[in-house]
Every structure is written in C-alpha cells, then in structure tokens.
Amino acid sequence: MLGIVAAVLFFIAFLINAADISTNDTFSSANVMLLGLTALALHVAGIGAGRSIRRRS
C-alpha cells in the first residue's frame, strides 16, 4: 500500500516540476518527493504491508 502512495507522490512531484507550478514552500516538488521517498522506505522496510496469517498444519 505504501508503494502505491509513494508512486502517487512521485507523480505529483513530477507534475509540479514539469508544469512549473508555483506553490508555497510546503508543497514544493522536492518536499513531495521526500514524502514519496519516506513512503517508499517504509514500504521496503515492511511497514504497512499488512499482516500475514500463519496457520499451523
């Protein structure tokens, strides 16, 4: 799930940068990209992946 969030944030950062949209300092393309990298790092670390149910046989 966090991988999808990261992809969306990267796409938004790309649109801000490519369209040269002037935003305030909070929503600059670099900050949105850093949020995407944070979500990607959490996804790779296994956080937010859901729980797997282990059954004993």
Structure commentary:
- It is a single chain.
- With 57 residues, the protein is mainly α.
- The protein has one domain.
- Helix content is 60%, strand content 0%.
- Helix 1 packs antiparallel against helix 2.
- The two termini are 29 Å apart.
- Keywords: Membrane, Transmembrane, Transmembrane helix.
SSE layout and pairings?
Layout: H1 2-18, H2 29-45
Helix pairs in contact: 1-2
Please work out how many helical segments DSSP would assign: 2
Tally of discrete structural domains: 1
Shape descriptor reads: rod-shaped
The total strand number stands at: 0
Structure class: mainly alpha
Note the main sheet.
none
Helix content: 55-70%
Mean pLDDT: 79
Beta-strand percentage range? under 5%
Instruction: Kindly report how far apart the N and C termini lie.
Output: 29 Å
Secondary-structure element string: HH
Q: Compute the gyration radius: what is it? A: 16 Å
Unreliable stretches, pLDDT < 50, 5 or more residues?
A: none
Oligomeric organization of the protein chains: single chain
What tags apply to this protein structure?
2 helices; single chain; 57 residues; rod-shaped; membrane; mainly alpha
